[in-house]
Write a structure and sequence with these properties.
single chain; alpha/beta
Length: about 140
């Protein structure tokens, strides 16, 4: 969690309950630190794997209803392409099936903002007070 004036930012959200209810600790951990899940304004997604985005929603309900999810456009397009997902073997095929109930509610609610570059943000582009995306080993960068 990153606290900046006017922004409460999470970097990824953990597994949620995808690996069982004992793993859905992020909301309780936030509350223990004095932050309610509805106080989160932005979520920066490093990549869409269940251990990074599984905590976005539980039972198809957004855990962070007021947050904007920031994710690379190629990453989002790749993981939401159901035809591509069906062509992969397990466990990747299973990862695709977990995207709809976790990332899907934010997409449907218009709470996803994509960006295209990873190595440096477009001139003048920042996400919440100067936070900029940079490439990591899992990102699909354009």
């Amino acid at each position: 969690m990153i606290n900046l004036p006017g922004h409460t930012i999470l970097v990824d959200t953990g597994t949620g309950d995808l690996l069982g209810p004992k793993f859905a600790k992020v909301p309780d951990s936030l509350r223990a630190s004095g932050v309610k899940p509805e106080d989160v304004t932005d979520i920066l997604v490093t990549h869409i794997h269940p251990d990074h985005t599984g905590g976005l929603a539980i039972g198809g309900t957004m855990v962070f209803p007021n947050a904007t999810v920031h994710v690379n456009k190629r990453e989002l397009d790749f993981w939401t392409d159901k035809a591509t997902g069906e062509s992969y073997p397990e466990p990747t095929k299973g990862f695709y099936k977990q995207v709809e109930p976790t990332v899907g509610p934010y997409v449907a609610a218009g709470r996803v903002k994509t960006f295209r570059r990873c190595y440096r943000a477009p001139s003048g582009t920042t996400y919440a007070s100067g936070v900029r995306p940079h490439a990591g080993p899992h990102l699909l960068c354009s």
